[in-house]
């Protein structure tokens, strides 16, 4: 009996018990589909987060006040210490590094923004002209903040698309005056609509010069300093230069935290990959359950097919060939279940992608191969016991049972 004969015999046997076959194929396909859908969700979440961080800019280094390493949390807060403020002069001193191309000091607050008829509360971001290229923003109308000395509190502002729409409606806003808090600003530009990035809706932003923001919020400290290194190779040097320069300005004390965009991306990548593997592993448990189901059903089938097995042995079939027949049935079942599961998983991922279009739910190739291989291996592994029991049957006793 060659391989083709074995597969033909197994197919005929499975076709003769359609209900049993369909149940086992369904069990296996559900397990494979679960692995594909859950890993595609995990991979989609990973790609989404990576994309969000990448959209913040390229070759990015971020300076935060305080040392996160000394507290394990918000710098200085857990020990009741007051972190040293980052100042505008600190930010400007960083431009001495040859590895740094641009800097964008940031001040963040919230204020009432009003025109002569309408008003709304809006997040106000203070920065400089270099924020536009660093954050890869684009203008819809007008121009961005003017260049020049960041210490000058020029009364100009740039509106997000949603803020402009709510305050000015269809009327042109560029050149108009509005009030932010207790100060008047002239609108010089409107940001192109860019939606949310890392949970921050740029369409609702109002951007003013950093010195104006410090006067508006009555503070001299900065929230962050964004640094753009000259190239990817200069990121490490830019980070080191930023730490050294600020340490010299702070009497030798390294009291700031400097993190790179690559470090953040690598951390999230590791966490989300581990999460994807974990949910894939949990889903793979259902494949083991399907394998146990196949084993139980095949053990019952051996009891029901003793006469058939006895007849095969009486005709000269060796125990090895009987085992091959049962292995072939398990392989055919597992293959059919795996293929059906992959189709179901791909369909489920597609539907989820249509419901949540921001989530790229393409299943990773390794999950597809792993699910397919695990389904085949599980089915064949759990068919060992039924195959051995069938091979050990005595032909005379088997034929005498009926």
From TrEMBL:
User: Gene Ontology cellular component?
Assistant: plasma membrane
Annotated transmembrane regions: 21-42, 277-304, 325-352, 364-385
The segment(s) forming the ABC3 transporter permease C-terminal domain are 282-395
How this chain sits in the membrane, per its record, is: Multi-pass membrane protein
Q: Where in the cell is it found?
A: Cell membrane
Family as reported in the entry's similarity comment: Belongs to the ABC-4 integral membrane protein family.
Q: What is this protein called?
A: ABC transporter permease
Naturally occurring in which organism (per UniProt):
Sulfurimicrobium lacus
């Amino acid at each position: 009996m060659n391989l083709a004969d074995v597969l033909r015999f197994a197919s005929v046997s499975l076709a003769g018990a359609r209900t049993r076959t369909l149940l086992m194929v369904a069990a296996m396909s559900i397990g494979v589909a679960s692995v594909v859908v859950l890993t595609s969700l995990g991979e989609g979440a990973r790609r989404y987060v990576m994309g969000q961080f990448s959209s913040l800019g390229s070759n990015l280094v971020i300076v935060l006040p305080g040392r996160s390493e000394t507290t394990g949390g918000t710098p200085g807060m857990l020990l009741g210490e007051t972190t040293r403020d980052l100042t505008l002069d600190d930010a400007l001193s960083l431009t001495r590094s040859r590895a740094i191309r641009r800097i964008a000091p940031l001040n963040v607050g919230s204020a009432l923004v009003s025109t002569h008829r309408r008003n709304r509360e809006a997040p106000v971001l203070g920065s400089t002209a270099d924020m536009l290229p660093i954050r890869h923003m684009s203008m819809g109308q007008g121009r961005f903040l003017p260049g020049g000395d960041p210490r000058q509190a020029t009364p100009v502002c740039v509106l997000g698309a949603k803020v402009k729409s709510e305050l000015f409606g269809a009327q042109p806003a560029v050149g108009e005056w509005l009030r932010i808090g207790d100060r008047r600003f002239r609108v010089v530009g409107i940001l192109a609509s860019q939606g949310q990035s890392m949970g921050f809706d740029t369409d609702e932003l109002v951007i003013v010069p950093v010195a104006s923001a410090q006067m508006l919020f009555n503070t001299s400290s900065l929230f962050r300093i964004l640094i753009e290194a000259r190239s990817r190779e200069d990121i490490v040097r830019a980070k080191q230069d930023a730490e050294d320069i600020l340490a010299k300005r702070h009497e030798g004390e390294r009291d700031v935290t400097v993190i790179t965009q690559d470090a953040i991306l690598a951390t999230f990548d590791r966490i989300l990959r581990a999460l994807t593997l974990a949910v894939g592993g949990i889903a793979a448990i259902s494949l083991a359950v399907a394998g146990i189901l196949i084993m139980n059903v095949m053990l019952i089938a051996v009891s029901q097919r003793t006469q058939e097995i006895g007849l095969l042995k009486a005709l000269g079939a060796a125990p090895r060939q009987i085992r091959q027949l049962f292995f072939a049935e398990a392989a055919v079942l597992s293959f059919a279940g795996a293929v059906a599961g992959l189709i179901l998983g791909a369909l489920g991922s597609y539907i989820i992608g249509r419901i949540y279009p921001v989530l790229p739910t393409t299943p990773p190739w390794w999950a597809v191969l792993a699910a397919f291989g695990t389904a085949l291996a599980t089915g064949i592994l759990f068919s060992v016991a039924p195959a051995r029991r069938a091979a050990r049957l005595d032909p005379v006793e088997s034929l005498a049972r009926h």
